[in-house]
């Protein structure tokens, strides 16, 4: 028993000696002014963040290497700025709103503050970063997520003296602030908004949709056949989204993302082999549409519980009209390019085959990458 106790002590003591002597949680003050501008001031342990650890977990050895190796601290500032900016996420009434990083601690400020604290207390170094965002008019609810390397963040969000929330937030559990009752929205406005969301889901956000539509066009015998495949794909997309939203199917896991990439690779490979010109090839976009619909359902899984049957109908009308319009535009651009190549007497068939092969390689490559990422 004594040997076991000594062994445990030997394992624990080095960890205690290498851990932060005194760690502090980050905190954030967010203020919405009368003009609708949100200003966020985040005070956090900067050296720990720069080495990619929370203040609680950052080892002294890594912090010393950062602070004492010539040039290391200065070189880490720009990557740190990018990590903070990319890790912050602001959603207003369910839609992402861009955040600007206005100020980030400099290498000089970090080193000076650490030196002032003395040798024994040189860590943590708590300094401020400032970010801002412009909220849309009549915003009713905002949700704020933080990078995982900030750990738990104690948040104080307020709008004047009217609304305020104080809570502990993490990357998985965002801070939320209600700014008032949500305004009534006319059905036509809802459909218009969903149409734009659907269009954005393909252009510019949906590279997978674009590559799949390109594969469908490259393997089609005519423009009309390609457009019919796009429509069938959208119908499949709608079926699985509806099934998940209504609770008929379970919510898909991360496995769906590699599968989506695989559908792109398979479609483009069949186009390269000339196997997509038969009339029966409509089955393929229908099945692959079901897969892509599961991918979208996974992306909006946090909102599914709030959707009523009426919401689902509006989403299917507005969102899918936007998706189909964007997909038709992708096919139209591809068809116009193909027509121009034919007019210029360039080898359109060979270019189609080469492009099909390139899309197939991209699809299979992303499939392997995402598959490895699951582990």
Notes on the structure:
By secondary structure, the protein is of the alpha+beta class. The chain folds into two domains: 22-178, no CATH class; 187-373, no CATH class. The protein has helices at 2-18, 46-50, 60-68, 72-87, 107-117, 187-202, 207-218, 223-245, 256-272, 283-299, 301-304, 309-343, 348-373, and strands at 26-32, 37-45, 89-92, 95-97, 100-103, 126-134, 141-145, 153-159, 163-169, 175-178. It starts with a helix and ends with a helix.
What would a concise description of this structure say?
The chain has helices at residues 2-18, 46-50, 60-68, 72-87, 107-117, 187-202, 207-218, 223-245, 256-272, 283-299, 301-304, 309-343, 348-373, and strands at residues 26-32, 37-45, 89-92, 95-97, 100-103, 126-134, 141-145, 153-159, 163-169, 175-178. It is of the alpha+beta class. The chain has 2 domains: 22-178, no CATH class; 187-373, no CATH class.
